[in-house]
């Protein structure tokens, strides 16, 4: 291989980073992420819906019957969002009765205050804010 082939393209700017999650019930997952989490829809491909979490960070929700993978009961993936006020987010998600919601806790070693919850099919979401 040539050196040019092994080098990242000069214009190799990444435009979007998308994490795809696979669902049995795509509509239910979409309602959660769009209505409860408030993530705006960026791309609707019907069986795959991509929502913006933050600038250039996206979550893709995929109907397992059409995607490259299938939904699985074990979810070794976590979506983590950093917010300015973790306690306000906790109150908000608590009012929406989001599943598996833990109490916010400080981690001095990580320099964060955080809690976790689950989306409708069990993917874990961590919400955190910086302590410093």
Protein model, in words:
The chain has helices spanning 3-6, 26-36, 86-95; strands spanning 17-23, 41-44, 48-54, 57-63, 78-82, 105-107, 112-118, 124-130. The mean pLDDT is 95. The radius of gyration is 17 Å and the shape is globular. It is α/β, with parallel strands linked by helices and 132 residues long. It has 2 domains: 14-71, 2,3-Dihydroxybiphenyl 1,2-Dioxygenase, domain 1; 73-132, 2,3-Dihydroxybiphenyl 1,2-Dioxygenase, domain 1 (Roll), CATH 3.10.180.10. A hairpin with a 4-residue loop joins strand 6 (105-107) and strand 7 (112-118). It is built from 3 helices and 8 strands.
Primary descriptors:
alpha/beta, 2,3-Dihydroxybiphenyl 1,2-Dioxygenase, domain 1
Number of distinct helices: 3
Q: Label the overall shape.
A: globular
Q: Helix share of residues?
A: 10-25%
The count of DSSP E runs of length 2 or more, i.e. the number of strands, is 8
Going across the major beta sheet, what is the strand order?
Answer: 1-4-3-2
Q: What would the CATH topology of the largest domain be?
A: 2,3-Dihydroxybiphenyl 1,2-Dioxygenase, domain 1
The second-level CATH architecture of the largest domain is Roll
In angstroms, what is the radius of gyration? 17 Å
Largest sheet: 4 strands, mixed
Element pattern in H and E: HEHEEEEHEEE
State the secondary-structure class.
alpha/beta
CATH top level assignment of the largest domain: Alpha Beta
CATH H level, superfamily name of the largest domain? 2,3-Dihydroxybiphenyl 1,2-Dioxygenase, domain 1
Which residue ranges are poorly predicted, with pLDDT under 50 across at least 5 consecutive positions?
Answer: none
User: Averaging pLDDT over every residue, what do you get?
Assistant: 95
Number of domains: 2
N-C termini distance: 47 Å
Our estimate of the beta-strand percent is 35-45%
Keywords: Plasmid
Protein name: Glyoxalase
Pfam family, one: Glyoxalase
């Amino acid at each position: 291989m040539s050196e040019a082939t092994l080098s990242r393209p000069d214009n190799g700017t990444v435009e979007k980073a998308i994490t795809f999650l696979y669902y049995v019930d795509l509509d239910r997952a979409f309602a959660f992420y769009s209505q409860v989490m408030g993530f705006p829809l960026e791309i609707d491909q019907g069986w795959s819906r991509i929502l913006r979490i933050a600038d250039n960070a996206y979550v893709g929700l995929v109907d397992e019957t059409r995607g490259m993978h299938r939904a699985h009961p074990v979810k070794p993936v976590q979506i983590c969002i950093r917010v300015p006020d973790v306690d306000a987010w906790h109150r908000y998600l608590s009012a929406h009765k989001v599943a598996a919601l833990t109490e916010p806790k400080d981690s001095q070693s990580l320099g964060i205050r955080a809690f976790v919850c689950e989306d409708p099919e069990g993917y874990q979401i961590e919400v955190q804010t910086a302590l410093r």
